[in-house]
Design brief:
- The protein is built from five helices and ten strands, in the order αββββαβββαααβββ.
- With 188 residues, it is of the alpha+beta class.
- Strands 1, 2, 3, 4, 5, 6, 7, 8, 9 and 10 form a ten-stranded mixed beta sheet that branches.
- Strand 5 and strand 6 form a beta hairpin.
- The longest helix is centred in the first third of the chain and has 13 residues.
- The N and C termini lie close together (8 Å).
Length: 188
């Protein structure tokens, strides 16, 4: 029931605000890392995001499943903080699919459903060169800006496509329109 309350709150806030939020993870060397990501979908008691298997956040989640979402709804002056435990829905064809990591889950039904729902231009990004910061590639070729199901590059792109599942453990709701500020914390 508590997750449904969080879901209803987010759905209501998204009617007037952006789906962009911040996800903080912990690197292998225990340093925090924050990045802006796009909220996509609700799962069963979870928030779902899409990412590239070659991204740093995937490596962070493999070493430490704990993360936190910070979401500021600018137009309404509402802040949500959502500590969560993350897992990754990966391709069974990727080497991580054979991993013993607790963070790795094989669920092709959900993964393929979300793959089919993203735009061809978003899909194309998964076929581009490695997005990691130390990528030495100096290729100057032109990459597709759209990728349709069935294109030759589709299999490789789909192999790089991961669904990040964030299962909240609690959330803090802070209305910045109210004085004094009184955060409300709910355990899930």
């Amino acid at each position: 029931m508590a997750f449904k309350t969080l879901q209803n709150t987010i759905e209501s806030l998204l009617k007037k605000d952006s789906p962009f939020l911040y996800l903080a993870t912990i690197s292998k060397d225990q340093k925090p890392s924050v990045r802006c990501i796009v909220f996509r979908y609700f799962g069963i008691n979870s928030l779902l995001f899409v990412t590239d298997i070659r991204s740093q956040k995937v490596n962070h989640i493999l070493s430490n499943q704990h993360a936190e979402i910070a979401w500021y709804f600018y137009n309404q002056r509402i802040q949500l903080r959502i500590p969560c435990v993350c897992s990754l829905l990966v391709s069974p064809n990727h080497s991580l699919g054979n991993s013993n990591s607790k963070a790795v889950v094989i669920d092709e039904e959900i993964r393929l459903k979300l793959w089919n729902e993203i735009s061809p231009s978003t899909r194309a990004q998964y076929s581009w060169p490695n997005p990691m910061p130390n990528n030495e590639s100096s290729e100057s070729k032109v990459y597709k800006d759209t990728l349709l199901i069935g294109d030759a590059e589709c299999a490789e792109a789909l192999n790089n496509f991961v669904v990040l599942v964030a299962k909240p453990t609690e959330y803090e709701y802070l209305d910045l329109n109210v004085s004094p500020l009184m955060p409300i914390t709910s355990t899930l």
